[in-house]
Amino acid sequence: YLKNDLEKLFHSKNVLDNKIVEAICGEDAKFTAELRGLGITSSTSEEGTAKKTFELKYENSTMTVGDTGINMRVANSKVDIISGTINSSNIGIYIYRSANSKINIKDVTINSTNQGLYEYDSSGLNITIDYAEIISTNSNAMQFDSYSGKTMTIRDGKFKGADYGLKLRYINLTMTGGTIETTNTSRDRYALYVYDYTTNLSNVKLISNNASGIFQEYGTLNISKSDISANNTSSYGIHNYYATTNVYEGTNITT
User: How many whole angstroms separate alpha carbon 152 and alpha carbon 175?
Assistant: First the structure.
């Protein structure tokens, strides 16, 4: 879109209802917007290249969309989502090949049919969550699927999925408060599944009333002052597969 066209769109309250805006950035271009109540897609002519930047501040807003709420596809980008709500019939936030990007989430609610937050192939991604309530009715609250290193810090929140609560691959996770829950009824589903890297949990509640607690495959799990409830009679509290597991004082595991 040309600049004038974008300005016309952003200043119209009617045109944007239930529509998706696509921001296309050219070589060495930078797109910055503060938007209210719509689905947002960022893309470039060459997805994931370092010459483009996408910056988004989504604040004090509510969007209800029939597809993906925020669709992020640009490397070296920055997205701030503050005091907002995303209601999605598909994925709440989709992060695709957005290497070395930063996402800050604070006081946010995401209700989605599929993944609340889904990442793919975004090495160097850094996510900070101060508080979020992310609920998926048909999949995982958050899912990370790339084969490269990422970092996520969660200070508080509620993460609830119908399959896994959180399903993470190749990510260093530090979580210092909040709950992770799966509503699945299979012993082979977990509130938290992590493949490799380091997981640090403190003051976290993991709820799996009819499933299992934690599956750490490779890497290291450090857990302290936390509660794991895996109440199915055949469930695992912690399932360790070629991982180092350190359980510290104040941790309660109920199976």
Answer: 8
What are 65-79's pLDDT values in tens digits? 888 999 998 899 999
- Contact (CB, 8 A) for 171 and 149: yes
SS3 state at 17: coil
> Residue 33 — very low, low, confident or very high, per pLDDT cuts 50/70/90?
very low
For residue 170 the two structure tokens come to 């190749």
Q: Give 105's strand partners.
A: 81, 129
With contact defined as beta carbons under 8 Å apart, do 91 and 70 qualify? no
Instruction: Report the distance separating Cα 75 and Cα 125, nearest Å.
Output: 9
Compute the distance between CA of residue 13 and CA of residue 24 in angstroms, rounded to an integer.
22
What's the pLDDT score for residue 39?
Answer: 65
Q: Is the pLDDT of residue 18 over 90?
A: no
Q: Where are the alpha helices (H) located in the chain, listed in sequence order?
A: 3-10
Within its chain, how far is the Cα of 79 from the centroid? 13
